[in-house]
Amino acid sequence: MNQAPDGSSATVSAHIVETGIGQVVFSNPSRRHALSAELLGALEARLDELAAQRLPVILLGSGIGQAVWSAGHDLGELAHDRDPLAYGKPLERVLRSVRAYPGVVIAMISGSVWGGAVDLAMSCDLVVADRSARFAMTPANIGLPYTTSGLLRFFHNLPIHVLKEMFFCARPLEAERAAHFGVVNRLVEQDQLQATALEMARGIAAKAPLAVRAVKEQLRILEDLQPLPVQALEQIAELRRQACASEDFSEGLSAFASRRQPLFRGA
């Protein structure tokens, strides 16, 4: 199964590796595997198809031995979308599909991971990475405010000061530190990435699928169980609205397109 939007080099393929194990590979080489809306739509469709087959485990990745696993959002699309992280947008739909998948999703990471692609990796149940992996949250570079739901995924996985460093400084978290903080389950040499992920998948596929599925869903519910007062939610929504509508966001996108440093004014 695969999909390639017209005029695009983006593809998403899915196949059965062996009994109980599937693999999804997304590719957008001309854009450093950026998560365009079309690619995300195809990825959501492939996940839905595999979910209907009730495969206990799927491997998710963009290839091995490359410099970039994914550059995150396709920033060229943001000029027409002031809030790509809103609830109904393509990335958020895919993240929900990964978290709700009725089985275990293992991310296979080779190369650097940027922005929304880090959120995709964090939404997977397990992460296997080689030593070239780096995780950089870069929304502050262009003036894009992150969502509460997105921050919670990091909040549950990282010490608060490391989380702040990632979002405030937008500097990559190297593979060794990511493994130290538990973001990566297995850190291996590049030539062992596929074999290690497949070994984990086989172990999971041999377990009782209904029990694994039940535990995953319970953990998802517990992670989402974050009661917040209405006033706090309204305040957060207003702060995000202001940032998305700001001149700084426009300046960030313009600077990125022109390959120059942005000049933010806080307005």
What's the helix count? 11
Uncertain spans: none
CATH class: Alpha Beta
Order of helices and strands: EEEHEEHEEHEEHHHEHEHHHH
CATH topology name: 2-enoyl-CoA Hydratase, Chain A, domain 1
First-to-last CA distance? 46 Å
User: Which structural class do the helices and strands define?
Assistant: alpha/beta
**Radius of gyration in whole Å, from Cα?**
18 Å
DSSP strand (E) fraction? Answer: 15-25%
What does this structure look like?
This protein is globular. α2 packs parallel to α3. It contains eleven helices and eleven strands. It is about 45% helix and about 20% strand. The model has no long low-confidence stretch (mean pLDDT about 90). A seven-stranded mixed β-sheet has the order 1-2-3-4-6-8-11, with helices on both faces. With about 270 residues, the protein is an alpha/beta fold. The chain has one domain (about 1-190, about 210-225): 2-enoyl-CoA Hydratase, Chain A, domain 1.
Summary of the model, kept short:
This is Methylmalonyl-CoA decarboxylase. With 267 residues, the chain is of the alpha/beta class.
Map the helices and strands.
Layout: E1 2-3, E2 11-18, E3 21-27, H1 37-52, E4 57-61, E5 68-70, H2 90-100, E6 104-109, E7 112-114, H3 116-123, E8 126-130, E9 134-136, H4 139-142, H5 148-155, H6 160-169, E10 173-174, H7 175-180, E11 186-188, H8 193-205, H9 209-224, H10 230-244, H11 247-258
Parallel strand pairs: 3-4, 4-6, 5-7, 6-8, 7-9, 8-11
Antiparallel strand pairs: 1-2, 2-3, 9-10
